[in-house]
Amino acid sequence: MPDTVSGYALSKQIIRSGTSPAANYRAACLAKSDKDFINKLKMVEEELDETIHWLEIIMESGMIRKEKLTDLFQEAMELYKITVSSIVTAKNRQQRIV
Predict the structure, then answer these.
(1) Cβ-contact 20, 49 below 8 angstroms
(2) 98 confidence band (pLDDT: 50, 70, 90)
(3) Which of 21, 66, 70, 80 has its CB surrounded by the most CB atoms within 10 Å?
(4) pTM to 2 decimals?
C-alpha cells in the first residue's frame, strides 16, 4: 500500500475486516444452537463482504495493480459464497426441525 493517509486508512480497514472472518467462524463452530450458528455466520458474511469492498476500492483506485490482488479477491469471493451457502443450508435445516 502507498505511504499515504488513504493508503494507511485502507490498510487498517482491510486488516480488520480481513482477519475478523476467521475469528467469527471459530465462534460459529462453538455456537450453542442453530440460531446462534446462523447469527455468527452472518457476521462472517458481513466481514467478508466488507473485505471484498475494500479490495475493490484498492484495485479501482490503482493503489495496487489489479493483477497483484486477483488471487486474493477470488479467494475472498469463494469464502463469501461458501459462507452464504452454509447459512442457507443451516436455515433450511432449522426450518425442517421446527
Answers:
(1) no
(2) low
(3) 21
(4) 0.89
